[in-house]
Amino acid sequence: MKIAVFPGSFDPITIGHVDLVRRALPLFDKIIVAVGINSTKKYLFEHDQRMKWLHQVFDKYPNVGVDSFTNLTAHYCKKIGANYLLRGLRNASDFDYEKTISQLNHIVGDGIETVFLIAQPEFSHISSTIVREIIIGGADATPFIPSEISIGSFQSRNFEVK
Ligand code: ADP
Q1: pLDDT average, residue stretch 109-137
Q2: In CA terms, which of 19, 32, 37, 81 is 20 to 30 Å from 9?
Q3: Atom 2 (ligand 1): residue with closest C-alpha?
Q4: Distance (Å, rounded) from C-alpha 5 to C-alpha 132?
Q5: What is the domain range of residue 83?
Q6: Per-residue pLDDT averaged across 124-133, rounded?
Q7: CATH number, residue 18
Q8: Which residues contact residue 70 at a Cβ distance below 8 angstroms, ignoring those fewer than 6 apart?
Q9: With a 6 A CB cut-off, is 106 part of the ligand 1 pocket?
Q10: Cα–ligand 1 centroid distance for 7 (angstroms)
């Protein structure tokens, strides 16, 4: 069984993430969208809120699961029997960063392969970072967010966006 883990912060999930998962569906038997919990990283949205959004978006796909993990991504893959990682490439800086991580995961994860999909042009400008800036700035992030998520439900530690 070909299982891929799609790891990320999903702070918040964007239509770019969803596009990547949908395009990868024919390649794997199962894709696990997994939130990596990094205690040193500051997130805009609470972990439970990010998980809830992932469920709202992906529960209707029978071959997609939603989970979270701590510590090394490669160890999590081993634990659940996944031999593949899924990542997206939007530009050259994604490539530079991802290359090293992929090479490390190949060693630490005993041959785990990272499968990269190039972002579609209509999504390659979308990142969670940009979406967070838009939300913090009080602008409408709806065009970048999956339709299953209601903008009214955006809540963070520090503020509420109506
Ligand atoms: P991280 O915190 O690990 O960077 P993200 O949640 O920001 O996690 O992103 C997870 C993955 O989704 C990364 O591989 C990233 O390249 C990919 N990704 C994010 N936005 C897009 C997009 N618009 N198109 C394609 N892939 C994307």
Answers
A1: 96
A2: 81
A3: 9
A4: 24
A5: 3-156
A6: 96
A7: 3.40.50.620
A8: 36, 37, 39
A9: no
A10: 9
